[in-house]
# Entry
Amino acid sequence: MALTAFSASEAADPPAADSCTPHLACPLIDRTEAENLASQLKAIADPTRLQILRLIERSPKGEACVCDLTECLGLRQPTVSHHLKILTEAGLLARERRGTWAWFTVNRQGVRRLWEDFHGLLD
# Structure
């Protein structure tokens, strides 16, 4: 994103309201893409979900089930399951069912894509 420098005289005498001309190229990101990115960013904009990502990433096997996370986080199973669902729907976790338990791993491709999409906004 480039910023335009203004001289002191321009700052003191802004252009008249009726002489404004558009300077933006529209749209830089379409609405659907913006909504998808916002949904993913909301998924990681929660302290508990960031802790979950870190716990799973740093677990000995790179995976965890709900019972592992509830103990570490000091939260009840329904709360942890809710956070896991949000992270999975955002594409940041992968879920594998093993019998009655679900095991979660960090979806590195999803995290990488989120980073690239977010970074692309700043280019």
Q: What stands out?
A: The chain is about 55% helix and 10% strand.
